[in-house]
Write a structure and sequence with these properties.
- By secondary structure, this protein is of the alpha/beta class.
- The protein folds into two domains: 84 residues, Leucine Dehydrogenase, chain A, domain 1 (Rossmann fold, 3-Layer(aba) Sandwich), CATH 3.40.50.10860; 135 residues, NAD(P)-binding Rossmann-like Domain (Rossmann fold), CATH 3.40.50.720.
- Helices cover 41% and strands 16% of the residues.
- The protein contains ten helices and eleven strands.
- The strands form three sheets. The chain has a six-stranded parallel β-sheet with strand order 1-11-8-7-5-6, with helices on both faces.
- The protein starts with 7 loop residues before the first strand and ends with a helix.
- Bound molecules: guanine.
- The site of guanine has 7 residues, from strand 4.
Amino acid sequence: MTRKRSAKIIDGKKISKQVLEEVRGDVAALKKKDIVPGLAVVLVGDDPASQVYVRAKRRTCADLGVASFAHNLPKSCSEKRLLKLIDQLNNDPAVHGILVQMPLPGQISEKRALEAILPEKDVDGFHPINVGRLLNGEECFVACTPAGCHTLLQRSGYDPAGKHVVIVGRSNIVGKPLAALLMQKAEGANATVTVCHSRTRNMGKYTREADILVAAMGVPEFIKPRMVREGAVVIDVGVNRIPDAGKKSGTRLIGDVAFAGVAKKARAITPVPGGVGPMTIAMLMTNTVKAARLIAKRR
Ligand code: GUN
């Protein structure tokens, strides 16, 4: 039987605004203790997508009263120069969070750059220490996209406890950390998690079992209605830019889920844009305030 009504839309814009308003309050409370949370945003090169992301992060900082320290390095920048800057930021007491925008130009090792950031300033949650702590169920910084998915589920009333969550995609920045986060023995988690990927045989067999289905493999509209269980909650992490002659920019964004068809079967679904995307900056700001609080406590 097909559901007569279309899925509830999980509004990432609205939920991210709520989170950001809470962060604004936290920033004001810290200011009363003479602490101004500071985020260093490092951009190497001139990748257009990275420039857009970095601008949005810096703008959000300004709006919330978080100090942002912009560092733009040329595309030709050596690894040594970037590592020297990271070292300076590690030692700068006004900087609580450090974000090095990915991807980096080919001459720089992303791994060495990420590992140079002090784990207590790693608001992106990419440092192996934070990744390991997440897996161990310890206090840590969680990467912003998985943290955003988790918060969206919690705040829209879809508690993953005891549910079967199927994640399609095994990347280090989404699939793997999200699996670790949702299988945690913790409030807002406690899910049974299955991770599918490009080598999974008979993918539909798993995705149709999902109470909560997360699409994070980076293939436009990969998840078709026949792969989704009636009444499932669907989280679409995909950000795919495709040509669209009808748009002024000539392109439009679509997710990893064939939205129109899947929305007819799902109980709830995140749109693209306006779903997981806006949550990532909100989680970055949450992590920055948390870093400021933790660092202040230690001093
Ligand atoms: N590039 C794409 N997404 C991200 C992100 O979340 N953090 C950083 N540092 N770079 C990115």
